[in-house]
Specification:
55 residues; mainly alpha; 65% helix
Length: 55
C-alpha cells in the first residue's frame, strides 16, 4: 500500500502547489534578472547591428 501512496497525484489545491514549489532540486540556479536580461540584450544588439550595417 505504501507504493500507491507515493504515486498518488498532488491535490489541485493551493497547498499542493506550494508543497511542489518548495521542493529544492539539484541543478544550476540562475537569478531571474539574468534570464530576462540576456534575451533583451541579444535583441538590442541585433537591432543595433541591423541599424548600423543597413545599406
Amino acid at each position: 500500500m505504501s507504493s500507491s501512496k507515493k504515486s498518488a497525484p498532488l491535490p489541485a489545491s493551493s497547498g499542493g502547489l506550494m508543497r511542489f514549489f518548495e521542493d529544492e532540486t539539484k541543478g544550476f540556479k540562475m537569478d531571474p534578472r539574468i534570464v530576462v536580461s540576456i534575451p533583451i540584450g541579444l535583441i538590442s544588439i541585433s537591432w543595433a547591428i541591423e541599424l548600423l550595417l543597413a545599406p
